[in-house]
Amino acid sequence: MNRESKFRKGDRVYALYDNPSGNKSIQAGYTGIVVDIYPDEIGVRWDEEIMEGHNCNGYCETGHGWYVREKAIEFFIPENDDFEPATDDELMRFLYGREA
């Protein structure tokens, strides 16, 4: 069954449980940004460098990327009222290394 993911590139997410997709260094609550999407896996650029982390097919720096199942992550909504989402230009620079 081919269905569309609820996540989009640039979404801020957090891990729902420890060791998603077998990576023992990713713990529940770790946060990151969706950088790649496949039908069965979501590529996340984790804020923390992780054990055996890779670059999610070139979408993030080596050591921070890991693919997880969609059920292993959820949208991260910060509790801090001072949080401001990234601008389109900031997001394009982060994801693609260029301006929008």
List the helices and strands and how they pair.
Blueprint: E1 12-15, E2 31-37, E3 42-46, E4 65-68, E5 73-75, H1 88-96
Antiparallel strand pairs: 1-2, 1-5, 2-3, 3-4
- Give the overall silhouette: globular
- Count structural domains: 1
Alpha carbon gap, first and last residue: 34 Å
The CATH architecture name reads Roll
Average of per-residue pLDDT values: 87
* Residue windows where pLDDT falls under 50 for at least 5 positions: none
Give me the Rg, rounded: 13 Å
Query: Roughly how much helix do the residues carry, as a percent range?
Result: under 10%
| Oligomeric state of the chains present here | single chain
Q: What fraction of the residues are assigned to beta strands by DSSP?
A: 15-25%
Structural class: mainly beta
DSSP strand tally: 5
Tell me about the biggest sheet? 5 strands, antiparallel
Main CATH class? Mainly Beta
CATH topology, which one? SH3 type barrels
